[in-house]
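User: My collaborator sent over this chain with a note saying "see what the structure looks like." That's all I know about it. Can you take a look?
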Amino acid sequence: MTSPLRLLAAGCAALVCAGAVAGCAGTDGLGAAEPAPAVSVQPRPKAVWHAWSGTSSASPGAAASTRQRPPEALKGLPKVGAKGLEALDVRAVLRADPRMRPLAGLATITRPGDAGLRPPRHVDLTGDGTPELLVAADTESGRTLLAVYTARAGKVYDVLFTGGRQVAVETLGHDLLLRSVCADGAQQAVRFHWDGERLSTVTDEKKYGSRLPYGVTELPTPAHGRDSAS
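Assistant: Without extra context I'll predict from the sequence alone. Here is the result:
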């Protein structure tokens, strides 16, 4: 099993996701008698943790996706009742998740720059009206791990596990948007969408020269550009 700290060692955002992207929409145009569809207002990104929010470009672009097995329910947790995930002990959820268990004992933090667990957030990312649980852990190295959990039939499932350097998290409608800084100086923006089983990647974009996420005053120096004698 991959250690969370090994995932954090990646130079760029090690964005681990799962699921499949739905098929592309049809390319046919409107028929002569078909009315034009109504114009809908596109959602704008909203910060999940405001203190850690970024100020980069509004939307990522390049499509990307991966497929994994359906998530399995976490073991050792009480049945989720009518109050949902908000009624569960967050640290108990982390201890039940093998990938987040080593971070369950970290102290709670309220500002960027400290190491520990950000306050948990509950956001509806599936569109069913019931909020998911989002937990982010910041490390002393400046990297972050993010886990998202949902409840189905009284059981808790981990539906996203991802990480990166100085991650800023936003919602875009019901989608989740993560921004981070790569070792080569680029800013990465990855958008996740609920596919019926988990949050899967729908877009993944790297940009150079963009504004930086929270707390970053300068870009990291690429490893190949450092003086080997220093």
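A starting point for your reply to your collaborator: Residues 45-220 form one domain.
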